[in-house]
Amino acid sequence: MSSVILRNVNKSYGNLPIVKNLNLEVKDGEFVVLVGPSGCGKSTTLRMVAGLEDITQGEIQIGSRAINDLPPHKRNIAMVFQNYALYPHMSVRENIVFGLKKSGADAETIKEKLADVSEMLKLDDYLDRKPADLSGGQRQRVAMGRALARDADVYLFDEPLSNLDAKLRHHMRTEIARIQHQYNMTAIYVTHDQIEAMTLGDRVVVMRDGIVEQVGTPMEIYLQPTNTFVATFIGSPAMNLIEAKIEGEDLVFDNYRLPAAKIANVDLQDLKSHDTVLVGIRPDFFEDSALSSPSDNLFEFNDIQVELVENLGFDKEIMFKLGGEDAKARLDLRSHVKRQENISMSVDLNRVLLFDTSPQGMLLNTGEV
Amino acid sequence: MQKREEHMSSVLIKNESRLGLKLVAPAVGIIGLLVIYPILFNIYLSFFDVQLNGTKTFVGMENYTDLLGNPRYYHSIGVSVIYLIGTVIGTTVLGLAAAILMNQEFRFRNLARGLILLPYFAPVISVVFGWQFIFDPVNGIYNHVVVDVLHLTDTRENLIGNPDSALFVVIVFDIWKHFPIAYLLFLAKLQSVPKDLYEAAAIDGQNAWGRFWHVTLPELRFVIATVVLLRIIWNLNRFEDVYLLAPNVETLPIFTYYQAFAGIVDQGVAAAISVIQLLVLVGLIWLYVRKVLKW
Fold this sequence. Notes:
The structure holds 2 protein chains of 2 kinds. Chain A is α+β, with helices and mostly antiparallel strands.
């Protein structure tokens, strides 16, 4: 295992920049997830580490080796591809040991690794089959096995679960997390799925348009997104952003006046320099007032008209209007709200985030939230 | 093909096979008239002594025993085997190399892809004259380059006039004329090889040669087998290229032609040669249908 360092890495096709000045250090044994919408440069970044794309500018290091000029087959990496990329003419067994053999492992090691990997991924019954005779989930496991059998410095995953159905995806996500902890491997994992990012990553890198928007642990990203893009991209349903006027020390929208002084880590002097701000409230942080225990840091949104209720079993999603915009709240099964009803919901002001109204929408709360 | 059918509904399969029968019916009729009847008549003739005026005398197996006792027959088989080995290997290797080259990205690639096909589309008779001129002992460019420019030898040679060297000229000519069809088949398949297979192989530690060996070749093996078998089948019967360029190269079809239409005309023996050749071809076609198409 090794660390991976990307230093001022740029990638462009002709004049079109794809990755802009990216800096990232993946520590030894760390699982880092690159997440972002399609076209954000996350796959390109991964492929530069793999050596499948050349680096326009900057440096990539694996361990202490600069690998810019090394072809992929000399980088000692393993990779799981989105479409599995299994060798169709080889059996599952041959697919798994192919890279291991090439790396010069002796017969005994190969045998042990194969037994190890096939047991862990439950492939024992399929070893003699060809990839064409396997289901999507089984192929995915073989692709994982082929990577894990290798004694690579770093393991790369390029949206490995995106071709699986929802149930299998969940299962494999858990498997990957388990394997990663067991092997303590250095891994870079690319996905557009924020749930995979949140559940798998030791750290998550949120990218947009070739730029890193934020790097942090899943909880940092969830609780303290640095701007409105990260705030709305991570978390489902997306964070509600409501434009509010600053009047004295209050944030005003509709008939509500939120006391800014009670919102965590807000510099009141700085706040007063703005005319308007965006108030960010995650749907998860709304509570049915009828069920919440009183606290002086709760703000109550009374007289909210429920437009729609989506029952998801334990959770239900409530759709309503806030500041003239569509807003969502997630309540649990204890509340019995119905469509067209008027209800009160409360929010812990410690959980409220403020963003400026610039195009970037930067976070105004400072320090721990 | 088989894989796909498994997923297709049985109703659709039935519909499709009925349509298929209707579509091949005219072709089957024409083949019956133009191929099956002559073949049967040919087998019939091979048991007769046939005169040019049309009189036939039944001779039983005599044509066959004559043939099997004729050293010229074995010689022509030998020539055909060399011709087949040379042309099949030549077209396959050159076609594969050209396909791999043309599968790379470069400027004017489409133009180059088209130009490569030219020998295949050029009429045989015109390019044959060109080739004969190249090897002309007095005015040909070949002798000019070898003798006058490079001084490799002192004597001008008539490569086409000498049957031994003419065989190699004929082989090179066939490779040049027919490698584009191998190239076309290879290129079509190469373009459908998933890119990520190469990427996976690179990450598994394979350099360019290893990727060719472990990805390209296995992916191409069906097409390679097809090209090899089709080229054998076609070239076992190849007449016009050889006869027009160097009629002194006696491959099996040329030998058959001489038996049937030149010198001492013996159409019964010619028919017997064809029957034996037919059996070999049927064997090859059986191999193709049973083995190669099943991959």
